[in-house]
Protein: Glycosyl transferase family 28 C-terminal domain-containing protein
Amino acid sequence: MKILFSVNPGGLGHATRSLAIAELLKKKLRRAQIEIITGNSSAELFRAHTFKVHDLYRFVPYTIINGKMRFHSIWFLRYALRYMKEKNSARKIVEQFKPTLIINDQDLAIIPSALELKIPIIYITDVLGIAFAKNPISQIWENYLNNALTNLINSCDLVLMPLEGKSHGKTKRLGPIVRETKKTREELRKEFNFTKKTILITGGGSEYGEFIVKKAVQAAQNFSDADIVIVWGPGLRKKNYDSGNIREFETIENLYEYIYASDLVITTAGRSTISECLVYGTPFIALPIGNHFEQVPHALAHGFKFEDIYNLENLIEKSLNQPRAQRKSSSTERFADEIVKFSHEIRN
Structure:
């Protein structure tokens, strides 16, 4: 069996959850040949785990001004232009590889190829619609994009969502996807030399990530009894803070273990990092890109908003005194089992 896994290249959230699934599929479908289409730092992550990778996709950067996303309609227009180009390139890879099954983590470019070549496709997403319109003209554009997105998703054979809730028809809500560690929290803290209260600040590699890291460090430095660990993310360089209680990394492959070992995580409002905090029971502060059509509702669902970035010191003090939640199970196994089940159905 040949499986082509197409992964959205934005940040590392899609890549980390897709990697968790792909690694399980290698164990459950031992004869399957799995190849990846993605791009940017996501391609590097999959290569590091010995997958064959087609480095094709390029993320369209947002326009961020003072921490807020601007010019949404222009961004979606640029995304549409990228989509038109990359769907043609993806078609060539599909025709060359001839997959039995396509799995797609929230990138639309490969769906037309699957439909035209009659290849079964599984779509993994936590987004079923977008909301960004501020005026009647952008409302027309938003409605058009939502209709197009709905049609593409409905054309897929199976839709798997990393969200809690009820499943309906071919759309199944399975819960969060998180890479799991076999180590205890105490073992990880010893390994990472965490001896004090530890605040982990992650930037995700974006311009906005740099914005919130600087704000978070400024607030966290007022807690002299805590250690601060900064993970800037791919594409951002360390700033070499002159402080004995700050450690900096550009990237960490096992970020999920650092999340488990930490006492507080300050992060952007991406779904994957929030899911890791929820599964490992680590208190977190989620700071969304202002006006972002995905991150704002993600953060709001957990009681956070963009303006919290100006109240970080109070939130840090409150969160450090918050008890840890009990560790939960990841739903990665459920995702892999659904894919395996579907793969057996299409072969019979």
Notes: Residues 54 and 205 are 21 Å apart (CA to CA). The chain has twelve helices and 14 strands. Residues 2-177+331-347 form a domain with the Rossmann fold fold (CATH 3.40.50.2000). The chain has a mean pLDDT of 91.
